[in-house]
Amino acid sequence: MPQKVGFFGGTFDPPHLGHLSLAIHATGQMNLDRLLWVLTPISPFKNQTHANLEQRIQMVKLTIEGQPVSEYCSIDVERDPPYYTCDTACLIKQTLSPDDKLYFLLGADSLTGLPKWYHATELVHEYLDGLIVARRPGTPLDLTKLNEQMPGIGQKISFVDMPCIDISSRDIRKKSKSGKSTKKYMPPPVYQFINEFNLYI
């Protein structure tokens, strides 16, 4: 039976409740059979990470513990850089059955910049059956302009309704470094892991 498979990628440095909320709401609203958390060793747009790779893998696994549809995906960890989403989607597609559908999860802020991504048209129209987009507070979204830049993309977009969790991994790192509590932004096991290994201080 064909499956609806979603994936989203990131350095997850650290993973937080915003990631988890998107995963849960996208899974429910889009009726996904599987959701792959693709850990990227280092983003093409960043030159460093803060927690090491093994620590981030462990934090992702702690985040999705008990989530029946979510699973950690090592497809980027097992290949050489650069880690472009187009290449990741191509590799994931090769692991699926021909009738399976592949969806990419992203935030509205990332969607706005999508036309500038590496092989963006190929990503959207050859490898993906849809884009699942979460709106971020304060992020304007001009679908008309997006359609002009990438004709046909509007037909592939589905928006996820989810509670507003206005936090990012960068915010968590900054708060942690300045001594502010970040407990409310992460699943308890992740928060405990960060404290245990004195990360982001």
The CATH architecture is 3-Layer(aba) Sandwich
Beta-strand fraction estimate: 15-25%
Q: Which sheet architecture does the biggest sheet show?
A: 6 strands, parallel
- Kindly report the CATH topology: Rossmann fold
For the termini, the CA-CA separation is 48 Å
CATH class: Alpha Beta
Low-confidence stretches: none
CATH superfamily: HUPs
Give the helix proportion (percent range).
Answer: 25-40%
Radius of gyration: 17 Å
- What is the count of β-strands? 6
Structural class: alpha/beta
Shape: globular
Please tally the helical runs, counting DSSP H or I stretches of 4 or more residues: 8
What is the mean pLDDT?
Answer: 94
Overview of the molecule:
- The chain has about 200 residues and is of the alpha/beta class.
- The protein contains eight helices and six strands; from the N terminus they run E-H-E-H-E-H-E-H-H-E-H-E-H-H.
- It has one domain (about 5-195): HUPs (Rossmann fold).
- Strands 3-2-1-4-5-6 form a six-stranded parallel beta sheet, sandwiched between helices.
- Strand 5, helix 6 and strand 6 form a beta-alpha-beta unit.
- Helix 3 (about 85-95) runs parallel beside helix 5 (about 120-125).
- The mean pLDDT is about 95.
